[in-house]
């Protein structure tokens, strides 16, 4: 891969290849390991990490850190995610989680031991070592709605033993590092993140992911059966009340990345629809569907949705890069607005293409299935509206 290319140019080059594979990965529900090997070769897996975490490589581990870019702005990361989201949204989602974790590790406020943060970051490209936060559980659901996790870490000698189950573990087949949300067995308990190397004994993936959309994301269950961890792998544990309140940085990044992914899906749907409308010439009309004013108006509605999405996402990324991070509620409203607009855009495309759009031989039905996943991501529509309503009412 040409190191002289910008991150966006690298992503554009890779996206063409990812798009060719996307339908097959979707059909087989297979994790796109090939995509991540190519992202690693391009140096894009650690693009979000601060340069200070890429310094002083661990020579004893045989790591070689020589990347053309790192510590990229949120605006740049957003462009990369949006480009890949248009080609293979499952790949883009896993990479977005990687970028969120690396940005969190890179903040001055991070409580992670620096040697662990460096280890996570420095293994990313040479070893295709992905990381994601595992928080959702069968009984708890998403921790964003409150409650203590059932996954438990108990003291054992100088370390911890972790047991539990996490569901919707996005990227599971490709993850090397697992940032596991768990409680301690102390009285009273503490809650927080335990870093787990996925290669440790007792870590097991249950291949449970069989969803309508984002079938290649590998969001399986991960089970922890008495996994022994060193003491310093309890990277950030606190009393439950210390976790109250939203994380503004995290919510802004989630809104930007999720908005880009699902807007990318809608752009891919729109691109195919435009081609269909230009080529489809019913005998009764004697001209392409694109010549009909009502079709032109509908296409204009899709253009409006996608244009406003692009402006909202770009503005939010620019604000974060300028140090003007909006509240978690404001970012949540952007996420809801953008993902719902993406869904609407694909529905508009489907209305224009009718049965052709639902045919398995055309990509629009896959784009429809994928875009429906957008509103499901945390923060979800009802919780965002409740938070915004309470703030507006000063409750």
TrEMBL record:
Cross-referenced InterPro entries: Acyl-CoA_Oxase/DH_mid-dom (IPR006091), Acyl-CoA_Oxase/DH_mid-dom_sf (IPR046373), AcylCo_DH-like_C (IPR036250), AcylCo_DH/oxidase_C (IPR009075), AcylCoA_DH/ox_N_sf (IPR037069), AcylCoA_DH/oxidase_NM_dom_sf (IPR009100), Mito_Isobutyryl-CoADH (IPR052547)
Q: Which SUPFAM superfamilies match?
A: Acyl-CoA dehydrogenase C-terminal domain-like, Acyl-CoA dehydrogenase NM domain-like
Q: Provide the Acyl-CoA dehydrogenase/oxidase C-terminal domain boundaries.
A: 263-373
List, in alphabetical order, the Gene Ontology terms for molecular function in this entry.
Answer: flavin adenine dinucleotide binding; oxidoreductase activity, acting on the CH-CH group of donors
The UniProt record lists the Acyl-CoA oxidase/dehydrogenase middle domain at 137-227
Q: Cofactors per UniProt? A: FAD
Q: A Pfam family name for this chain?
A: Acyl-CoA_dh_1
Coiled-coil annotation reads none
Superkingdom in the source lineage: Bacteria
Alphabetized UniProt keyword annotations: FAD, Flavoprotein
Family according to the record: Belongs to the acyl-CoA dehydrogenase family.
What PANTHER family does this protein's entry cite? ISOBUTYRYL-COA DEHYDROGENASE, ISOBUTYRYL-COA DEHYDROGENASE, MITOCHONDRIAL
Can you name this protein? Answer: Acyl-CoA dehydrogenase
Q: What organism does this protein naturally occur in?
A: Comamonas serinivorans
């Amino acid at each position: 891969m040409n190191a002289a290319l910008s991150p966006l140019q690298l992503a554009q080059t890779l996206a063409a290849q990812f798009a060719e594979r996307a339908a097959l990965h979707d059909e087989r529900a297979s994790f796109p390991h090939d995509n991540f090997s190519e992202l690693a070769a391009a140096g894009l897996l650690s693009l979000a990490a601060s340069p200070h975490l890429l310094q002083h490589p661990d020579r004893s581990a045989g790591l070689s850190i020589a990347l053309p870019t790192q510590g990229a702005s949120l605006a740049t990361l957003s462009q990369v995610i949006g480009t890949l989201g248009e080609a293979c949204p499952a790949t883009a989602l896993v990479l977005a989680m990687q970028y969120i974790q690396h940005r969190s590790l890179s903040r001055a406020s991070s409580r992670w031991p620096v040697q662990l943060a460096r280890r996570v970051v420095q293994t990313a490209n040479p070893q295709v070592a992905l990381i994601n936060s595992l928080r959702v559980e069968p009984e708890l659901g998403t921790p964003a709605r409150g409650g203590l996790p059932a996954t438990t870490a108990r003291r054992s000698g100088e370390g911890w033993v972790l047991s539990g189950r996490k569901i919707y573990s996005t990227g599971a087949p490709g993850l090397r590092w697992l940032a596991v949300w768990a409680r301690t067995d102390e009285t009273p308990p503490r809650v927080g993140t335990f870093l787990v190397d996925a290669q440790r004994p007792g870590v097991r993936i249950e291949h449970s992911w069989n969803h309508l959309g984002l079938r290649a994301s590998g969001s399986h269950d991960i089970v922890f059966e008495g996994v022994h961890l060193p003491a310093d792998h309890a990277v950030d544990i606190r009393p439950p009340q210390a976790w109250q309140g939203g994380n503004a940085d995290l919510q802004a990044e989630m809104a930007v990345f999720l908005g880009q992914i699902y807007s990318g899906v809608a752009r891919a749907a729109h691109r195919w629809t435009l081609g269909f409308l230009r080529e489809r010439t019913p005998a009764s009309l004697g001209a392409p569907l694109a010549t009909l004013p009502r079709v032109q108006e509908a296409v204009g509605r899709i253009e409006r949705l996608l244009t406003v999405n692009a402006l909202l996402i770009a503005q939010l990324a620019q604000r974060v890069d300028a140090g003007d991070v909006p509240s978690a509620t404001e970012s949540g409203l952007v996420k809801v607005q953008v993902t719902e607009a993406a869904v609407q855009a694909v529905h508009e495309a489907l209305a224009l293409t009718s049965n052709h759009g639902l045919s398995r031989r055309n990509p629009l039905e896959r784009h429809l299935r994928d875009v429906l996943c957008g509103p499901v991501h945390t923060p979800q529509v009802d919780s965002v509206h409740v938070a915004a309503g309470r703030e507006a009412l000063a409750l």
